[in-house]
Amino acid sequence: MSSNGAAAPLLEVEHIKLLFPIKQGIFIDRVVGHVHAVDDISFVLREGETLGLVGESGCGKTTLSRTVMRLLEPTGGTLRFRGSEVTHASRKELMPLRREMQMVFQDPYASLNPRKRIGQIVGMALHHGDGKPEHVEPRVRELLARVGLSPEHVNRFPHEFSGGQRQRIGVARALAVEPRLIVLDEPVSALDVSIQAQIINLLEDLQDDLGLTYLFVAHDLSVVRHVSDRIAVMYLGKLMEVSPAEELYTKAIHPYTAALLEAIPIPDPRENRKRRRSVVSGEPPNPINPPKGCVFHPRCPHATDICKTVEPPLTQYANGHIAACHHPLNVTAAELKAATVSPTSPLSAGKATPEAPAAKAGAGAEGAPAGE
Amino acid sequence: MSAADKPILEVRDLAVSFATDEGVVQAVDGVSFDLRAGEILAVVGESGCGKSVTAMTLLGLTRSPNARFDGTATYKGTELLSATDEELQRIRGAEIAMIFQDPMASLNPVMKIGDQIVEQILAHNEITKVQGRDRAIELLDRVGIPRARERADSYPHEFSGGMRQRVMIALALSCDPSVLIADEPTTALDVTVQAQILRRFRELRDETNAALILVTHDLGVVADLADQVAVMYAGRIVEQGTLDDVFYDPQHPYTWGLLGAIARIDRPRRSRLPTIPGLPPSLANRPQGCHMRPRCPHEHDACLKVPPLESREGAAAGHRDRCWLEPDRKRQLREIAPGEIGLRPKAPPVTPSAKPPTKPKRAA
Predict the structure, then answer these.
(1) Is the model's pLDDT at B187 over the cut of 90?
(2) Residue B285 near chain A (CB below 8 Å)
């Protein structure tokens, strides 16, 4: 919890866990193992903020966002929305909350009912209010205009719209109940670049005008940068790094973040030729049997013996930048000395902050001090 | 690298249209390009611009009763558009091979991957099954699949997305084709895996000197891999040239828009992403003249006629574009900030209603 006391926390996630049981057996289901989809994650989302959540497919980012929405019930940890605990709240108890948190889905083709008109899709939630049609219709038109669609389109069907327009409809539907928090699950990854930019600009405008809070889930670091205030990097169900948005791109502390950044090809041929990228080998391991110690160690170019045995704690550096790595990159000796174990660190993690790079230099930790 | 000798694939004025209930969809309209051995040509564009149809037509994969083809596509003297099914069968896989976008959907789920590769090898070579199997294992090894001998007996579902894409590449390489067509080969993959696959493509090109047609919408991938670039919009090539020409001296407003709209991680973040206003036109009902006209801020009277694809004065010989503007004028117009290329917002004087989609305009 790196609260600077700026805005009130809207959503508090503490050591949240979600394990999916794997069952086997013909008549009696025996639980033979668990998929560690979300494994002890903590963060705070403050009012008006955008947190970008990034990771490769299968890292648990969608599961985490669904757990936060309470579409799934966490196996452990606590979840607080506006100070009240909702970890195990019942469907009924959650009803008023649904109004405050909405979701925009990844696939604009699958998330709109093809047999309903746009007006019905966007207006559905409004009927739960006072529900008078004469109130619903103008509001729907207003919402459509708000997201950059023509209000005359209320009577059209989803198939009459392009991908980008459908995503706008998804946003309008989410806005209908005037939520505080919108969880955006890969809202632009199915769209073309020029359309992506339009949707991102729209989301930013809406946030400025309506004071919305976003949890923006993406697999791509180049997209989240534009919308996020902070970015959290996830790998195999765990948080690897949480950083102020801009700092992540200039000063990535975790080798996994560095690898993700290096893997993105830069759309500039000369720059691309200049930079010799070290390609991380392999693919994310199976979350049923996550590696011991640091979950990234089998793919990490900097891994040493300690990484195989001790899970690195999420360590707090300057600027609210936290990272879970024994061999952090881009930090100075002074910063390392000042580092403390973050209260958001997983309970199973070690308690010792990383040692100074001077002692570790031989082990391949590139503690190259950047900046300062 | 690219030998300057005769191209192995010559495409001239390729046009593909489909008759549908909504009318004739002109998916590809007058596409021409050359491909030389060892060359990587990137075909770039947004969805629905005809880039996949162009690629698939070369292998006769778009043939259907409602399709109409014009122009020529000559591969080493064989005309592909009029080739018989038997001729195409000989060419497919052996001479020109295709790597599809979705590795989940393009492998047979009930057949071991080794057998799938052997099947293709035996279809084109007169060797024994055992030899074929050895070759398949060698291929799997070459594309970076660990323990290839054991993995050849696995089914597609036992592989991850990246591994399946490697199997697809191994399959495409199985008969030493001279031309590889890769349709969005890394779109379904994570960035770290994408980087591995792109590196593998580069190595394979150097090893085999095969030419590659890379169909993609990702300009980062293009910058990483391509030698030549063709930018497509609404069925037509709007700009084509070498990688550096297209990225550093882009001549068509659509290319400016594409280059401007990408979020770059190596630059300070911009407060707002520049966009291309509006939507790509429907291919069944394309605007008259330059197809970019309704979305282009620099549109003028001349744009009602289709600009030819030709190289302009002062541009490199192979650098062609479809835009009426003078090159000097373009160099001014495309700078939205010092050293930054992009598409300007559409002219402010004509904005009575600030509606982003479709602005019908009748020029006198």
Answers:
(1) no
(2) no
Subunit contact A150:B355, Cβ cutoff 8 A: yes
Report the distance separating Cα B208 and Cα B178, nearest Å: 8
Question: Which pLDDT does position A210 carry in this prediction?
Answer: 93
Amino acid at A313: P
Instruction: Sort B200 into a burial class: Cβ within 10 Å, 0-12 / 13-18 / 19+.
Output: middle
The DSSP letter of residue B281 is P
DSSP string over B207-219: HH--EEEEEES-H
Q: Is B355 on the interface with A (CB under 8 A)?
A: yes
Q: What's the pLDDT tens digit per position in A76-123? A: 999 999 989 999 999 999 988 888 999 998 888 889 999 999 999 999
| Whether B356 and A198 lie within 8 Å, measured CB to CB | yes
Count CB pairs under 8 A between chains A and B.
Answer: 132
Query: Strand pairing of A181-185 and A213-218?
Result: parallel
Half-sphere exposure of B73 (CA within 13 A, CB side): 21
pLDDT digits (tens, 9 = 90+) for A317-330: 988 999 999 999 99
Kindly report the number of other CB atoms within 10 A of residue B260's CB atom: 24
Looking at residue A357, its pLDDT comes to 53
Helices and strands: H and E segment counts in chain B: 11, 13
Instruction: Look at residue B358 in the predicted model and tell me its pLDDT.
Output: 45
| Average pLDDT value for residue range B137-142 | 90
Cα B265 to Cα B272: distance, rounded to the nearest angstrom: 14
**Range name among A200-204, A276-280, B95-99, B244-248 with the lowest pLDDT average:** A276-280
Grade residue A129 by pLDDT with cuts at 50, 70 and 90: low
Mean pLDDT score across all residues of chain A: 87
Token pair listed for B111? 């057949």
For chain A, the structural domain boundaries read: 108-178
What residue has token string 């947190």?
A51
Residue of B nearest to A55 (CA): B190
The β-bridge partners of A22 are A33
Say what the alpha-carbon torsion angle A347, A351, A354, A359 is, to the nearest 10 degrees.
-150
CA dihedral B97, B99, B104, B108 (to 10 degrees): 0
Domain range summary for chain B, segments of one domain joined by +: 9-231, 258-341
Residues 6+ apart with CB under 8 A from B81: B14, B57, B69, B71, B72, B73
Q: Phi and psi for B232 in degrees, rounded to 5?
A: -110, 145
Beta-strand runs (E) in A25-112: 30-46, 50-54, 76-81, 84-85, 101-104
Q: Tell me the pLDDT tens digit for each residue of A39-66.
A: 999 999 999 999 999 988 888 898 999 9
Closest CA to B305 of B282, B285, B287, B284: B287
Averaged over B16-38, what is the pLDDT?
92
With contacts defined as CB-CB under 8 Å, which chain A residues touch B257?
194
Longest dimension (CA), chain A: 73
- Residue B242's pLDDT is what? 94
Q: Do A268 and B191 touch (CB under 8 A)?
A: no
Distance CA B282, CA B234 (A): 8
Convert A112-140 to b/e letters by CB count within 10 Å (16 or more is b): beeeebbbbbbbbbbeeeeeeeeebeeeb
Share of chain B above pLDDT 70, in %: 93
Is A267 an interface residue toward B (CB < 8 Å)? yes
**Single-letter code of the amino acid located at A78:** T
- CATH dotted code for B9-231: 3.40.50.300
Interstrand relation of A30-46 and A9-24 (parallel, antiparallel or unpaired)? antiparallel
DSSP structure class, residue A281: P
Lookup: tokens for A308? 């195989």
